[in-house]
Amino acid sequence: MKKNLIFTALVMALSLPALGQAKNLLSVHILNQQTGKPASGVEVTLEQKQSDGWKKLNAATTDQEGRIPALWPAQPAAAGDYRVVFQTGKYFSAQHMESFFPEIPVEFHITNTGEHYHVPLLLSQYGYSTYRGS
User: Fold this and answer.
1) pLDDT tens per residue, range 26-52
2) Please, which residues have CB within 8 angstroms of residue 17's CB and are 6 or more apart in sequence?
3) CA distance 134 to 120
4) Average pLDDT over residues 81-100
């Protein structure tokens, strides 16, 4: 009985930090329209618009599901203009395929830092589309 209580207390203590973690402000997802499969291994950069240009905030690479679930860096969020830059030329080059777009910058405006922002990209060698996802 005592062992069960200790085990239960340990499990609860280890899961408390996970319960208190907030969802990351920004995520991305890339689907290769030509194959119908996720685009894994794509480098993505997050930048913030400054008066003198763009400031890099973070970078990551899509996982096997074509996702980066947490692209926002470990810093407080602020309303403003941002962009994610998808390095699509490198992605297609690694697959020995041509692409018209060496990179795809997607600019967006964050107004409410309490919301989650998701930027999906539907990709092909010669075209793409995006929208604000959920």
Assistant:
1) 999 999 999 999 999 999 999 999 999
2) none
3) 9
4) 95
24-130 CATH, one of 2.40.100.20, 3.55.30.10, 2.60.40.180, 1.10.10.200: 2.60.40.180
Structure token pair of residue 38: 């996720």
CA–CA distance, 107 with 87 (Å, rounded to integer): 15
Burial of residue 19 (CB within 10 Å: 0-12, 13-18, 19+) is exposed
Tens-place pLDDT, residues 117-132? 999 999 999 999 999 9
Distance CA 115, CA 33 (A): 28
